[in-house]
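Minutes, project check-in

Agenda point 3 was the complex the collaborators sent over. CS summarized: two entities, 286 residues total, and the question is how they sit relative to each other. Sequences were read into the notes so everyone works from the same version.
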Amino acid sequence: MSHELFMRKALEEAAFAAEEGEIPVGVLITCKGKIIARAHNQTERLQDVTAHAEMIAITMATAALGGKYLNECTLYVTLEPCTMCAGAIAWAQLGELVYGASDPQRGYKRLSPPVLHPRTKVTGGILETECSQLVKKFFQEKR
Amino acid sequence: MSHELFMRKALEEAAFAAEEGEIPVGVLITCKGKIIARAHNQTERLQDVTAHAEMIAITMATAALGGKYLNECTLYVTLEPCTMCAGAIAWAQLGELVYGASDPQRGYKRLSPPVLHPRTKVTGGILETECSQLVKKFFQEKR
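CS then shared the predicted structure for the full assembly.
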């Protein structure tokens, strides 16, 4: 239940991205049940490929905590993270990753050997339909 | 020859990192033979796992060029990029990657399917001994 609650807030962030013409991906990071970071994709606004929602939120969360590791945190993201973001999640030794829609083309799950830290707990498919619909709708309107 | 010239400057950046107690990795980005970005690892100073030299330099280079793609650029890095940085290099559609020392444990080359953009030209082993010695020396002094 709480996974869905936080994923709804990540979806709100993704909707902000869509309004700004960004690929709609949103992220929320919690630590011991408290929200410490929220962000959405800003690659177009900043003209910077590194400005994915996960990257921005990880930087925010480590600033909030005053340390580089997120082993007591949960990161909620509407779309399965890409190679870059999974690499950052690994370095942060994230406690738990919860994502919405899968991304078979760009997602980190394709990669081998596995890229996440072995202790990171992963749950996929939370509000999957809503998360993937948001991305599909965005690209349909772009065409 | 010019690869070595630019790699020497990346090594200077790596040496700055070492002086600051950071894992010594340095990066230089050139566009049409002109240096447009240089950076070194700042993960300790910023307490941010995303602050690898490559990530900082990619953000700097896209700001300098006013666009997100680095297809006409060459990125020189003293150490083979990690998963995160390789993912960023792929999104940036980098023209050419030149690295010094290999990183069999953390480097992107372990990963399959390949993570870089198919058009990115890759050259490894430029000033390899100096690049790897800098990292080895750093960890020896840390112990």
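Noted in discussion: The beta strands of chain B are 26-31, 34-40, 73-79, 96-101, 121-123.
Follow-up: revisit at the next meeting once the mutant set is ready.
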